[in-house]
Automatic annotation (TrEMBL):
Its EC number is 3.5.4.2. The lineage of its organism: Bacteria, Pseudomonadati, Pseudomonadota, Gammaproteobacteria, Pseudomonadales. Zn(2+) binds at residues 14, 16, 194, 275. Substrate binds at residue 276. Keywords: Hydrolase, Metal-binding, Nucleotide metabolism, Zinc. This is Adenine deaminase. Catalyzes the hydrolytic deamination of adenine to hypoxanthine. Plays an important role in the purine salvage pathway and in nitrogen catabolism. It is an enzyme of class 3 (hydrolase). The keyword Aminoacyl-tRNA synthetase does not apply. The record marks 218 as: Important for catalytic activity.
Amino acid sequence: MSLDLNALNKAELHIHLEGSLEPELMFRLAERNGIELPYDSVDALRKAYDFGSLQDFLDIYYSGAKVLLQEEDFYDLTRAYLDRCRAQNVTHVEPFFDPQTHTDRGVAMTTVVNGITRALSEAKAEWGLSYGLILCFLRHLSEDEAQRTLDEALPFRDHFIGVGLDSSEMGHPPTKFKRVFGRARDMGLLPVAHAGEEGPPEYIWQALDELGVVRVDHGVRATEDATLMARLRSEQIPLTVCPLSNVRLKVYDHMSQHPILKLLEDGLKVTVNSDDPAYFGGYMTENFEALRKDLAMTDDQARRLAQNGFDAALVPTS
């Protein structure tokens, strides 16, 4: 009998909380906050999730985030994601949140952080979830704006363990944020960054050497650089790979082309994650199931991928 992938104990290290905003919840929050959405129905919104690129997705992602205004909205968003984690036996999470997406709209940092952390704390108390929260900077904005965001977040320093870098990759190399990442490291914050999804292998090198990241988010384009592959293997630098996301955003045309299992067998520390599951068609279990269906992932490979998630965690997982 094949391994039950839903029952498999899993850790998720690459999940944007704003990207778990399901259409049904988006409409409920829009109604609660008196916001008019540019879609007539949940079905019409889902039909818009046909992305030709990362930017196509981000346009809808940022538009949807506008319904998040009150502390209760951020709580409901996070709680809905964590309930799915519980149903899929995801027992450790290190979610990203994008404060600039909200503070630039006039939402207070305290509103964002309090709503998110209340849900995380409840999940820890109710079913023993372990977690670490990561604050991400938006790379299409300036480093000065990232510095101000870090300043604004300092009163909440005890609530997050690291900093990350996300949003539009092309044209925004990691080196653009070298100073703010250095400052964050000096504060004891653990650095991670998106690199090598749409951006070239050079962006992965920059994330490692200029930002000092301890984990690379995505990183799949490392396959284009043999020297980089050797470094990732020898240093066992984790890659938080998001299979369904990579296909939906046209990094690969079909899951059968995805290199995750090759990376695993080549000795790299690759992990499975859902990225923005409300938009990309699946949470953790669905990502594992896609690998079994289209890449003939074995039960042994599934177990190793799942264990890599725990091994690559930034905080203790038990």
